[in-house]
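Ticket 4471: requesting a sanity check on a complex prediction with guanosine-5'-diphosphate. Repro inputs:
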Amino acid sequence: MKVDVLLGLQWGDEGKGKVVDYLAPKYNVVARFQGGPNAGHTLEFDGHKHVLHQIPSGIFRSQIKNIIGNGVVLDPVIFKKEIEGLAKFEIDFKENLFISKKTQLILPSHKLLDAAYEKAKGKDKIGSTLKGIGPSYQDKIARNGLRVGDILAPGFDERYRNLVDKHESILKHHDFEYNLEEVEKPFFEAIEFLREFNLVNSEYVMNNSIQSKETILAEGAQGSLLDIDFGSYPYVTSSNTMTAGACTGMGIAPKNIGEVFGIFKAYCTRVGGGPFPTELFDDTGKAIQDEGHEFGATTGRPRRCGWLDLPALKYAIMINGVSQLFMMKADVLSILEEIKVCTHYKLGDGTVSEEIPFQLMDEEITPVYKTFPGWKEDITAVKDFDSMPAELKDYIKFIEEQTGVPITIVSVGPDRIQTILR
Ligand code: GDP
Ligand code: IMO
Ligand code: MG
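Returned structure tokens:
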């Protein structure tokens, strides 16, 4: 079968974990293809709330093969903690979890470099999660990186030491204090722990699954506006978060991509630095933040909140080839008298445009809004589309007309069961 891809279309935290967990019973395989522990994917079901960082969100369904693909950067220490945190669920990881030997390792010194680079940027810092993502991808591209498969070969410790020496020579040029020894012991313990798992050539696992007509869901991390090529550069993450990244991050051909599920919040959020044209700095923004519990699942930082940005959403749909839209957190907007949607950008020179400018940061953008009446009604227990308030149906219809893509799932709460399939 073809591989369906699920991606965030905004700046991350759209609710990918919730939807992957909801859709998982339809799939034999769930695979992560990029990012690393910068991701925080929240799942809620049967009274449990769980945040996953590197492990795919299909892990709670016993019949599913979960794959960490070659495009991911893996922190062994966080991986060990994640696995230990799942102990009460009695998951058979030998049966259910496979890690690509080509997955890049995040070393403790990558995290130090992340912190040093951010410090050096001063007020222009990215607002990184400081999980070592950028430095690890940097080493991958520079052809210095260590991969999961390397831990099985002789000489790993020496290769580790050579790479850390390079990192230390960079750190020397930064005004940055650190203690590497303290973090190396847990790293090597975690490497031992990692050796016990299924470390595989996951491109074969994926393509064999395709050949044997298994159903596969690729789980994106971050969001399209954080994509290294098409996001709000340089305020982005260091991987391709888009559909194309699913091919390179798992070793599958573009012709094998099936549905592309694009997931977006009924409004927008962003955590970290960088431009955000529809950001709200007023009481409405604060109200959305409170109602939506908009605090980062990885770092706990408050998420900046604002109105839905249609030019950005259309852009994300375009670069990803989105075939179905899922709208999340519609329930959060129930508190508002009126709801705005940005339809166009008015630029500094007075022109009105639907295009995302080259430098979102430098451009003086005034969003042009269309206002909708709110529904002011609790929708968290609504079970089907027909029972939704008319104002919400109008809001959904407008987005569908504007984007030309059907909204096939509307999410009305964090729990697995608060999901409306159309
Ligand atoms: P991800 O990174 O895309 O998986 O999203 P996060 O887990 O970082 O953030 C989404 C947050 O919203 C989590 O706390 C979810 O439990 C919660 N959530 C997901 N869908 C809904 C929804 O429809 N309504 C509400 N109120 N919360 C939701
Ligand atoms: P999920 O998968 C939201 C943001 C960081 C920072 C920028 C770069 O949960 O949606 P990095 O750690 O990659 O160097 O940070 O990207 N960021 C995220 N924001 N959700 C995420 O993941 C994110 N992963 C990274 O806040 O602005
Ligand atoms: Mg998240």
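Notes from triage: The mean pLDDT is 97. Leaving this open until the requester confirms.
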